[in-house]
Amino acid sequence: MIDRRGGDETVDVVLRGGTVVDATGERRADVVVRGRHVVAVGPDLSGDVVVDAGGCVVAPGLVDLHTHLRQPGKEEAETVESGSRAAALGGYTAVLAMPNTTPAIDCAAVVREVLELGRDALCDVHTSGAITVDRAGERLAPMAEMAGLGVRLFTDDGTGVQDDRLMRRAMEYGRGLGVTLAQHCEVTSLSEGTCMHEGEWSSRLGLPGQPAEAEELMVMRDIALARLTGARVHLLHLSTAGSVAMVAAARAGGLSVTAEAAPHHFTLTDACCAGYDATFKVHPPLRSDADVAAVAQGLADDTISAIATDHAPHAPEEKERPFDEAPPGMLGLEYALALAITQLVDSGPRMPLSQVLARLSWQPAAIAGMERHGRPIAPGAPANLCVIDPEARWTIDATGGASRSRNVPYVGRTVRGLVRHTICEGEPVVLDGEAQR
Ligand code: DOR
Fold first, then answer.
1. Which string of DSSP letters, residue by residue, matches 325-345?
2. Is it the case that residue 2 has pLDDT exceeding 50?
3. I need a labelling partner for 181 at 20 to 30 A (CA). Which of 49, 138, 235, 269 fits?
4. What homologous superfamily does CATH list for 61-368?
5. What is the reported pTM?
């Protein structure tokens, strides 16, 4: 969205010894970057600076469709700077900021502020815009003025738009603007007062549960409205088997409906809530084993086009509150790739790594209309790349990495796949796992 960086035009950086994996396939090749672009791809290339990619996969940089950067308003939990640093360390070259900030990103002035904050960030910072003023679900936000600044995706994320007629209008308007309407699917009349998934575990723990239908009713409505209006609709953080089945049917029927899933929804179940630790509280909630398997399968068969982190930092004192009072959300940017490899390649549906990269990079880039990201690695392409050691195993710790928050629900898990280097707009922003500025 902002053209702010640029490697040195006089220096050739060569990523040497890796296997290039992109939307066109897989090949052993070195990659030379000059300025902001890839200038050569092939065997035995040389350059002024050599970056070791031996034994590694060189892929288009990852693209996160769902990042809570918390700025403006909740800088104690995250900033554009700290969140984009976590993103770069996680292999991301672009993130899409969610609009549930204070104030909400619901007009041109706040869009400009976030883009300005992202200007010097370690990855490309794009923003979504709210569908309704202050995300209150009552009046449409000035979508056209935000679209004029490059906003391509509109959502009230954190809540869903409850009013059917207003959502219909948003879709009609959005269709005219050529933008995508993204929904946090949750019917509040069924979810109000709940704090976890409704099932065996909520009964055992004595916590008020939210039925899968709270999500599914809105998925059903938005698919119906997509059919009615012809709008492009993206369904955020799908968590239930029923939702996955409805999206599969909608896509088979030719509707412009895409969906994403978050790492926690293919990794963790509602049983994780057994210790009343609010680190495991999230919206939509962690679901049953069957739902987790259906989400993983939906990613494998491409019903769900994107893995999106829903990186949702919260200050420690917030997350230390009792389960029913704590805010929902968990970190994801530095763990998504490794969790995807561990849960989707090494177990579960056993996807090929290239398919996992499709869900993490070029497919989300296409959904968000980010033309400089996810592109095949070829001369002339923007140099937005990540270099992954697919064999490295590591254990997730409780530090929270570069985030200002520490709400990590994966502590102690050993995972496979480590980001070695990230190149953003030609600049090596992460080398050997270390941020370069
Ligand atoms: O768990 C969540 N946290 N789900 C959301 O939709 C919002 C997010 C947040 O902003 O903390």
1. TSPP-B--TTTHHHHHIIIII
2. no
3. 269
4. Metal-dependent hydrolases (3.20.20.140)
5. 0.98
